[in-house]
Structures are given as structure tokens and as C-alpha cells.
Amino acid sequence: MADESSAFRYLLDCLAARPLPDPPADADWDALYSLLVRHRLAARFHALIKPRQERWPESFRERLRLFRAAQGIYGEQCGLRVRQSLAALKEARVSVIVLKGWAYIQTIYGGDASQRLCEDVDLLVHPRRVDAAAAALARLGCEPERESWPGYHRRYTNGERLFFPSRPGNPANTFSIGLHWGLIHIPSYDARRVDMDKLFARTRPLNVAGVDALELGAEDEVVYACAHWGLHHRFDPALFRYYEIAAQIARAGESLRWEVAAARAREWRLTIPVREGLERVERLWPGTVPRSAREALAGLSPARGERFVHAWNGLTVKYPALAHLLTWLTFPDWRQRPLIALQDVFPSRAYMEWRYGRAPFGFWPWLYARRFLRALPCFRERS
């Protein structure tokens, strides 16, 4: 992260220090506000300064308050959906791990959804309980995302997205559930990559939106957070991602077994994103990651396949179409690779007519031409 402005350095100090440092006399409050919004930390900053808010200008505080209040209204509505989902799964006796955002709302933000925007909830269930989980959510009226071919998600991916029925005027009408049966899905889903029995055995209890659920074990959480940030978000520079990883490390404290985290990163073939993610956090807040942990990770040698994946995955930032090719090349069952490619490139008639509308004169194969024309920008270099 290249931002060296005084506002950015002050923000870093505020996120790391307790009590908060006094605001600089020459602070550019407009610049700081814009920075907080860009890095998705405006509501969090309002919560941090509130106990001694008189130290900050009233106009600055009011902008933060309004931002947080608006986010809180949306977060409260989304929280109702989360509670419904988890309650339905609990009633069906499906153990569920809450991943990322809604878990962090509980563990980092004190259960206050106004501090952290989260437009969906990611739930991980054991592969043996996927059918029971899907049935429980279907009883709530949740509808699965359209698939290019029936059963595509179950065969080739680690999850599917479910949507609550939309209602006019409902602020949460776009809220969705990511129902996962695998932890890692980039560049492709490999059911053998993570032992789900052991993963669930290491979980910790977590109450989310008033319903008892689970969160990942401390070491698994750090590895997963870094991997998701690096693989899925390509190390998106938004500061809230750095902050949440640092907060999880601080929360675990001395109980975090770094040698176990390093071993897990190697076992899951995630050495590169874990090492790079922790290095990025350490550069912002020196001392967050113990030296012994950094040395242990530096001593790990990623396999050739992992190096290939991460080199190629980095190119997908500029060339999005390469992500599909990488998935096809790395799918664990080589016999299925041609079929995945065909189903991605040539979806079913039902999907094509749903996605692109009726074809001229009812000749639906013409819709493939429309699909390819819309996909052309994905083959160009992004600026």
C-alpha cells in the first residue's frame, strides 16, 4: 500500500493504538473522511472515537455519524436474514461455520453491524450435510442462483449462492447466502484439499445474530483470511482487510500457534498468499506478526503447482478471462476439464434464454453470439 499521506499515517495509528492518539492540529478532515470511506472504515472510526469524541471537530463527527447510521439501517435488515438462515439450519441440526464478514461483525466489531458493511453471509457446512442445509434454506423461500447447466455448482465448485425472495421497498432484497461445502475454491475446487472432518473438529463456538453457530479455529482463520484476500480479492488494497487480519491475530494473542498456521498453509497449498498477506499487515503495523512466525513462513518452499497458480492468478487482475482458463487447467479430475470448459462456454438453452432473452425468430443458438460479444471486454487488458 503506497499511501504515505499524513491522514493515512494517522489512521494507521488510530487503528493500532489504545487510547487513540490526539488528532493532529493541521488535519485535513475532508481528506481523512474520504480516506475512511474509501477503505470502508468510516463507521468503525466513528465507533472508535465516540468515547472521547469532543477531540474531533463536530462537522467531521456528524458526517461519520450519518454514514454509520445509514449503514446500520441496512445492517439491521441484513441481520434479520442472517438470523433466519442460521435458525433454519440449527432447526435442521446442521452445524454451520460462519465465514468472513458476519463472523467478524461478532468478533471484531462487537456484534454491531453498523460498523461493517456486509451484503451477504457465507456459511460453510460439512459436505455430508449439504442436502439438509439446502432443504432448510429452501423452506425459507431461498432460491438458488441460476446455473449454466443443472448441477454445475455441486459438481465443480465449492458452493452456491441463494437469494431470499425480493420484496419492493425491502432494503435487504439483494441479500444473499453463500452456501459452501468447501473452504477454498480458487483456482478450482478440490474436495481433498481441506479435511472437513478435522476442520469442523477445530472450530470454536460463536453466537451470530442471536443464534449459536461456529467459527474457524484461530490458526485456520488466519490462513483462510490471508488466502481469501490474496486469491479471491487479489490483495485488494482496502485497509479494512488488513485491519481485520491484524485484529484476528491480536484477538488470538499468545494462544495462536504460528507453527500450526505455517503447517496448515503448506498442507492447503496456500504458502504464498499467507506469507504475502502477513508481510503486508506487518509492514503497516510492525510487531503484529512475531518474527519467529515470519521466519517459519519464509522457510517454506511452495510447490511448483502453487507458484504457477499464484503467478497466473495475478494476471487475472488485468485479464479477467484467464480466471476461467486457470480453473479448467487446475481442476483435480483431468477427465472433467473439457466438460467444465464446454459448460462454461456453451450454457444450456434454459440459461441462455433467461440470461439474454428470447432469440430472433426463436433461433436460440444465436444467443451464443450475443454472449461472446458481451464477453469480449474480459479478454482486453484492464487499466
Describe the structure.
Strand 6 and strand 7 (211-215) form a beta hairpin. The chain has a domain at 217-315. With 383 residues, the protein is α+β, with helices and mostly antiparallel strands. The strands form two sheets. It has a five-stranded mixed beta sheet, covered by helices on one side. Strands 6-7 form a two-stranded antiparallel ribbon. The radius of gyration is 22 Å and the shape is globular. Helix 3 crosses helix 4. 52% of the residues lie in helices and 8% in strands. The chain contains 18 helices and seven strands.
Helical stretch count?
18
Separation, N- and C-terminal Cα atoms: 18 Å
Strand-residue fraction? 5-15%
pLDDT < 50 stretches: none
Q: What is the subunit organization of this protein?
A: single chain
Could you tell me the mean pLDDT?
A: 90
Provide the structure class: alpha+beta
Strand order of the largest sheet: 1-2-5-4-3
Spatial shape: globular
Query: How many β-strand runs?
Result: 7
Order of helices and strands: HHHHEHEHEHEEHEEHHHHHHHHHH
| Largest sheet descriptor | 5 strands, mixed
Helical amount: 40-55%
Question: How big is the Rg?
Answer: 22 Å
Essential attributes:
globular, single chain, 383 residues
What is the structure about, briefly put?
With about 375 residues, this protein is an alpha+beta fold. The chain has 18 helices and 7 strands. The protein is globular, with a radius of gyration of 22 Å.
